[in-house]
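Collaborator request, handled under Task 6.
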Amino acid sequence: MTENRPNINIKKSSSVLISGGSGLIGRYLTSSLLAAGYQVSLLSRNANKGERIRVFRWDPEKGIIDHEVFEGIDFVINLAGANIGDKRWTKSRKEEIVKSRVDSTRFLHKVIIDKGIRIKAFISASASGIYGSVTSAKIFNENDPPAEDFLGFTCKRWEEAADLFNSSGIRTVKVRTSVVLEKSDSALSKLMKPGKFGFLIQTGSGQQYMPWIHIIDLCNIYLKAIEDPEIKGAYNAAAPQHVTHRDFMTALAKVMKIPVLPAPIPDFVLRVAFGEMSDVILKGSRVSSEKIINAGYRFHFSKLEDALNNVIWG
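Structure tokens returned to the collaborator:
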């Protein structure tokens, strides 16, 4: 996991603060940072100042934060945000999804600027959903405008909040994450669930694309964002191999050694079950990884079958 890191004079004793560190990406990223020799602190609604990882209390909605957390901090990584797939997208849930991302980012900016805290970079999660829930022949890159649907709007607001740090003279990176491949707590784990009954299920036409990334590559992109001062702005975190949902399920079935049912779940069934959120499942376009590759990153897992074998079988 080290060969992708540039030879740049970053002290391995540097300290990284992660908000939203208790989620899937945060847990893996914390382990990666510790293994690389960084000191790691987390922001959580429950404080726990242990020896290896210090957890400090914050509550962005109430404007509460333990200011001690910023002592000696060099980098801030913001992963905070309500899970888009946890609940049906009611009006109130959509407001929660947006506010949990935008307000937490704005709150961090206000505290850091008001207190005169000096950090080397602010690195924010974002999502490939900024390009919208659409199936098209286009391969989207970081120069394309945000879509006008809910995910596009959410990511646009999220990134605008992150850009407050850039406007304040702080190097800012936005990591537009695709479907993360991880076995126990991810979109992949949901696709694998029917496997306990001996089969997998395709959804919709199967022609929708599924941009994906192995959790190790995602963590390494965050490490590169920390260590390479030339990394600025938005970067797609997606493996270079483009696959449709049908391709994905075929590869998954091969790795798991079980069949895919010949009859997919029809679009209308998913729309009844999930409403607007079903677009995330039923639509998808290709996302370019050229920018991060041209910045010097080399993927550990550029082929889907290799990535799935590693995730599932280790």
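The cover message to the collaborator said: "The radius of gyration is 19 Å. The chain is about 35% helix and 20% strand. Please let us know whether this matches your experimental observations."
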